[in-house]
Amino acid sequence: MPTIKYQQQTKTTDSGYSSNNSSFKNIYSNEKSKTTALLRLQSDIKLGIYSTLKYTLKKGNLTQKDLDSGLIFALENGYTDKKTLKLLLKNGAKPQEKDQINILRLLIEGNHIGMFKKLLDHRYGVFKQENLNRSLHLAAKHGRTEMIKLLLKRADLSYKDEKGNTPLHTAIRYAQKETVNFLLEQAPKTQLIVNNKGNLPLHEAISRGNLDLSKQLLKSIKKHESKIFDWIKPSFFSKKAKPDTMSKTTPNGDTALHLAAKSGNYQLYCYVLNESKPEMVERKNTQGLTALQIITLTQQAFESMLTTKSRPTGTSKAEPIYQNIADNRNTHSLRR
Predict the structure, then answer these.
(1) Residue 291 reports pLDDT greater than 80
(2) For residue 33, what is the enclosing H or E element?
(3) Which SUPFAM superfamilies match (predicted)?
(4) Which listed residue, of 44, 53, 92, 290, carries a Cα 20 to 30 Å from 314's Cα?
């Protein structure tokens, strides 16, 4: 009986190369085929054929740059199944210093907490401290509280970015309530750190008209008062004073009450007014304006709040504001 020879079946991929082993060897035997090797790796990642991906990683003449580029390619294009990433990491892909923040950013944005945790393991390379600190801001921006927990032992919650913002400033800016609460519990002293604009986290919350976060910050100050007071630098508050973020001013001389008046959130203004010391009502900023005068001069922003239905209850200090705005609504124009 004649011997029947079976032809080895091959599978053609997007890059046009056969996926059998001999084809692999031909492709990677040439020193000039490094670019082709990376394309092959990307194609295998895209197709999700683990046997060929494994062979490419083992026999594909891939450089460290190719491996790292393959990892970034997988993350950028959503090929983030556990097996693919595990193969890449096991075979030498690791975030080099120049790529670290990009890889961490992609994992944070995609909320790939499992792989994020794995990458923080020293087996896959030591992360530069600055990149870990910057990752805190990315995690705060996207509300990735669980990722922040993983970074706590290796990153600094007091770290400032190029604008002088701490992770707490960043979480407030993007209204990440859960993350803000966690950061306040872990590092309450960061409430007293100002950014490059001279703004405290409380100033950021009030300026953005966020009543919930403003309440959260003020409650935290009271809760952690002793811890914060022990940390305060003498130049920040009077040595005998307790931490009072309500009286701390911005470079423009605005207190929390001024900022609340500018925010356009009347409910927030009433809350801050009731939390402020009596003398704050008459405090003037560098423009010579009190908070009440700011409201009067920006009455158009508050016009819709003059009805009885919009008036909050239990805010006796705020009652004179209604009449003041009503009396001046026809005599003052919006200051530009």
Answers:
(1) yes
(2) none
(3) Ankyrin repeat
(4) 290
Q: SS3 for 12?
A: strand
**How does pLDDT run across 56-82, given as a tens digit for each residue?**
898 888 888 888 888 888 888 888 777
Alpha helices in the chain (DSSP H): 21-28, 34-47, 50-59, 64-76, 82-90, 97-109, 113-119, 129-141, 145-151, 167-173, 177-186, 201-207, 211-223, 225-231, 256-263, 266-275, 291-297, 319-328
| Arithmetic mean of pLDDT, 277-300 | 89
Contact by Cβ (8 Å): 58, 30? no
pTM for this structure? Answer: 0.70
Is the CATH number 1.25.40.10 carried by domain 128-232? Answer: no
Using alpha carbons, list the distances in angstroms from residue 148 to 20, 27, 113, 241.
44, 43, 10, 33
Domain spans of the chain?
34-121, 128-232, 244-302
Domain with residues 244-302, CATH architecture: Alpha Horseshoe (1.25)
Q: 263 with 207: CB under 8 angstroms?
A: yes
